[in-house]
Amino acid sequence: PEGGKVQVDALVEKVAQCQRFQEVLKVHLFDTEEIDEVTRDLGHKLRLWRAMSAWQGQMEVWMESPYDALAPAKLEREVGGYWAALQACMEGLPGNQAALKFRGLVEEFQLTIPVMADLQCAALHERHWAAIHTALGFEIKGVDGITLGELVDKHAMKAAATIGSVTAQATHEE
Question: 147 forms bridges with which residues in the sheet?
Fold first, then answer.
């Protein structure tokens, strides 16, 4: 993708040079609307490509990290940055399939953050953990190194409502 930008930049420079020649020769300047549109479109696509590439790398790090070592507030901020970049790309590339797919990935990941926050709640006691383990169908309390990726693979997010309820109850009891 970066090679395409270099080529477009070279074309833009040639167009500018041609326009300077046309001014000197006092001939009608040709319209640069198409090259301007291509430049804008390429800029949006490069921004989308870079954001998706960065997202993929960051997702690998997050998914391989123990869920209880990830700070939900920090994740929200980082995901918010990707969301902002995505929104700008979607405005510049309406209906773009890659942007729509990226949006789906970001939205899906956003659902994991409240579950991680709930599972890290200090107010949870053994009875709460028992209810969470029942909802999940597997144990996580006392099991070292469970990664976010494992929680996602085991469909822990399907138990989000129950986990949230149990966590709210535990917090209310404190």
Answer: 66
pLDDT tens digits along 126-170 = 999 999 999 999 999 989 889 999 999 999 999 999 999 999 999
What are the tokens at 94?
């309406």
Asked whether 67 and 119 are in contact (CB, 8 A), the reply is yes
pLDDT tens, residue by residue, 49-101: 999 999 999 999 999 999 999 999 999 999 999 999 999 999 999 999 999 99
Query: 143 Cβ partners below 8 Å, 6+ apart?
Result: none
The contacts of residue 8 (CB under 8 Å, 6+ apart) are: 35, 38, 39, 42
Strand partners for 66: 147
What is the band of 38 on the pLDDT scale with cuts at 50, 70, 90? Answer: confident
Helix axes 112-119, 97-110, angle to 10 degrees: 20
CB 144 within 8 A of CB 69: no
> Is the Cβ–Cβ distance between 124 and 132 less than 8 Å?
yes
Cα radius of gyration rounded to whole Å, the chain: 25
Q: What is the DSSP string of 135-152?
A: HHTS--TT-TT-BHHHHH
pLDDT score of 82: 95
